[in-house]
Amino acid sequence: MPQVTLTVNGQTHTAEVEGRTLLVELLRETLRLTGTHVGCDTSQCGACVVHINGESVKSCTTLAVMANGANVTTIEGLAKPDGTLHPMQEAFREYHALQCGFCTPGMVMSAIDLVQKNPQGLTEQQIREGLEGNLCRCTGYHNIVKAIAAAADVMHGKRSEIARAAE
Amino acid sequence: MYDFAYHKPASVADAVKLLADPDAKAVSGGHTLLPALKHRLNKPSALVDLSGIAELKGIRRVGNAIVIGALTRHVEVATSAEVAASIPALAYLAGHIGDVQVRNRGTIGGSVSNNDPAADYPAAVLGLGATVHTSARKIAADDFFLGMFTTALEPNEILTAIEFPIPEKAGYAKMKNPASRYVMAGAFVSKGPMGVRVAINGAAPCVFRQADMEKALSANWSADAVAAVKQAADGLNADIHGSAEYRAHLVTVMAKRAVAAAG
């Protein structure tokens, strides 16, 4: 069986996998990192998005062996060890950008990649287009878009903390 | 998914050897192959992962052409300064394939070799009169796309790069299926060293050139000129997403928009 060695949230793991083992299966079933979700399993919904070497990818459509040697970040790797949330997580909480929460890990991972790739800032339209690969069936996206705009201000150093949502 | 052996060769020569096994399949981004394998539509003995082959990567200008290595991901074409400066329609097309995460993994070589009727890249390859480079030869776009999911590639022949002649003008427009994002009908138009070309994707089992539109645009390069050309519905795709007549109508609309985008 193929062996893979990869770094997940800063920790190096080596595991034996089958050729057909998906990255999301390795993360959830072997490493027990169940924050990454499987929604559609057909590369459409984005609940399984993680970062490979800093880029957002759908881990249900990536073989574990393809991530050999890679640096993977999952939703579990965002908060600081003392529990302080990443600005994107904080913004999702502040703006009520989730209801059932199933899509949230993927949304947050996609949103961070989107903000990092656009240091010049993002329009509402660009945020909406950037979420094309993530489906949410609860929120209607509106609060997710607001949360990402608020997090972008903090991630780009324009504000020191997440702007409060209107009461 | 059925299980398979996994190989990651470091050179095209080694990959060709591994693909001599008729049940082995090449893979790079995997965004078409892995979903097909999940449905057990295919049972390969081995996957040959081309993504470690450095010679298949990169975008470079060679004379009056842009040569894009087979492993170049959609995101790289979409954000390439070289492509934006010389063939902006190609950068636009690459930036509108699937979604962000698909563009972060999917490659031009995979899309063109697979020749999905609803894929974007085949329209650019045919619409610009590109040349497909393989491990064995060079193939003109007009001789490459043979039918639904069928190309001129031999079983163990690997697409290595695509050479796009730089046009004077080019434009691309598509109507996406709102759920799957696949192309219902699209048009890639260009005017340049390869003449006036109109390639239609999404509408038929295989990308094709629309000769009547090419004639109309050769006489008068304007959106109005293609607006007068009707596409016949015979032989076009008909499914739950749209009838052949609907797609035929879309072909003219998309061609008009593509010419308008080309300027």
TrEMBL record, chain A:
Pfam families: Fer2, Fer2_2
Top-rank taxon: Bacteria
Domain 2Fe-2S ferredoxin-type intervals: 2-78
Alphabetical list of SUPFAM superfamilies matching this protein: 2Fe-2S ferredoxin-like, CO dehydrogenase ISP C-domain like
InterPro entries: 2Fe-2S-bd, 2Fe-2S-bd_dom_sf, 2Fe-2S_ferredoxin-like_sf, 2Fe-2S_ferredoxin-type, Aldehyde_Oxdr_Iron-Sulfur, Beta-grasp_dom_sf
PROSITE patterns cross-referenced by the UniProt entry: 2FE2S_FER_2
PANTHER family noted in UniProt: OXIDOREDUCTASE WITH IRON-SULFUR SUBUNIT (PTHR45331:SF2), OXIDOREDUCTASE, IRON-SULPHUR BINDING SUBUNIT-RELATED-RELATED (PTHR45331)
Protein name as catalogued: (2Fe-2S)-binding protein
Organism the protein comes from: Roseomonas nitratireducens
Organism classification: Bacteria, Pseudomonadati, Pseudomonadota, Alphaproteobacteria, Acetobacterales
